[in-house]
Amino acid sequence: MSLHLAAAIDLSGAYEAGPYAELALLAEGGALDFVTLGDSFARPGLDALAVLTRLAPATGRIGLVPAVTTTHTEPFHVQAAVATLDWVSHGRAGWTVEVSATEAEARLFGRRRAAPREELWQEAAEFADVAARLWDSWEDDAEIRDVPTGRFIDRDKLHYVDFEGRAFSVRGPSIVPRPPQGHPVTVVDATEPRAREAAARHADVALVHAASAAQADAARAELRELAARSGRDPDTLRVFAALVVDLGGGEHAAERGHGGGPLPTAEGPAYRGGPVDLAELIAAWHRTGAVDGFHLTPVEPRRDLERLVNGTVALLQHRGLFRTFYPGSTLREHLGLARPANRYAALAGEPS
Fold it and tell me: Which of 43, 60, 158, 346 has the smallest number of CB atoms closer than 10 Å to its CB?
């Protein structure tokens, strides 16, 4: 089982692309699968999707995964923006599905009151379903671009999705051709029980906050079982342990209490110590099959990401536990995930 690594590049007070590009390139130098950038209607800051679209030309291999809130937004517009990121990055896009649960955020839009989180995650699952259908609404060879005849597309290879759900009604087709990956990678933080059903049905990568290998293994087993129950092959789901990391201790041993694993904090399970001990933790958890990978959020982005790449990742690479180069060009290839078949093309090819 291949080890996968991802990192958050969130910065406070950064309002231009340069500092984010610096972190993304540092992570790319360590051959990490992808970087994430958080976003929320509850705080000021740059739009994560726009920032990572700006970073796409400045990076070459690393996956780019912005947080996207599915509450108070429309799936038709969001899927087009994520598909555009996939085109601009030549197949390195993903999106982290988020929900917005506060009344203050609801007032920013004035469309409806805040809803219970269980209802919001049901809506988010429907949102992800609609997005995937819209990505499939163009067959891969729908574009003709035949200048002499003036034909740009083959209309027979565009499909109405005609989606009718509890929260959305979408006809389609999309306004953006099918993305290079078919479907950009969908990431869901499945720590919250109400998010697990959505993750099991629609996520390519599920994040779980776990303070021990046993907790991570239990969460992974539950998600895989839910995926199988929903009709998915559980091997198409990658489960990452999400840890906050503070590598300010340099090469010193893990802080007391952290040697046996992360400690719970308000931000989630946190590891405080040195890069070497973090490498030992990652290797130990992965060796047992508890997780497919790790999503690491640095406490101090510049300092900790540099120590992560040049210390922890370098050690894992030296031991042959993590790759030293990207075997492919797309995020799906990094994760060992196949490009999804187009559901409408498959139906069109069936005998009547």
Answer: 43
CA-based nearest residue to 262, from 239, 242, 237: 242
Nearest-angstrom CA–CA distance, 338 and 329: 13
- Provide the whole-model pTM: 0.93
| Measured distance CA(252)–CA(259) in Å, rounded | 11
Q: Which of 203, 201, 91 is nearest to 140 (CA)?
A: 91
pLDDT reported for residue 342: 96
The per-residue pLDDT for 101 is 80
| C-alpha closest to that of 26 among 339, 307, 222 | 307
Residue 61 near residue 326, CB atoms below 8 Å: yes
pLDDT at 75 over 50: yes
Q: How far is Cα 173 from Cα 134, in angstroms, rounded to an integer?
A: 6
Residue 109's pLDDT is what? 84
Phi, psi torsion values for 53, nearest 5 degrees: -65, -40
Q: Are 223 and 206 in contact (CB under 8 A)?
A: yes
Question: For residue 249, what pLDDT is reported?
Answer: 63
Q: Would strands 34-37 and 94-98 be described as parallel, antiparallel, or unpaired?
A: unpaired
- Distance of alpha carbon 146 from alpha carbon 331, whole angstroms: 31
CA torsion angle 314 316 319 324 (round to 10): -60
Query: Could you tell me the two tokens for 99?
Result: 């929900």
Q: Are 133 and 162 in contact (CB under 8 A)?
A: no
Share above pLDDT 70 across residues of the chain, in percent, rounded to a whole number: 95
What is the mean predicted confidence (pLDDT) over 266-283? 93
Q: What angle do CA 262, 268, 96 make, to 5 degrees?
A: 120
Please give the DSSP secondary-structure letter assigned to residue 188: E
Tokens 């779980």, residue? 208
Radius of gyration of the chain (CA): 20
Q: How many helices (H) and strands (E) does the chain have?
A: 12, 13
Phi-psi category of 250—alpha, beta or left, where left has phi over 0 and alpha has psi -120 to 50? left
Whole-number Å distance between alpha carbons of 58 and 146 = 32
The tokens for 242 are 């999400």
Q: How far apart are CA 331 and CA 71, in angstroms?
A: 26
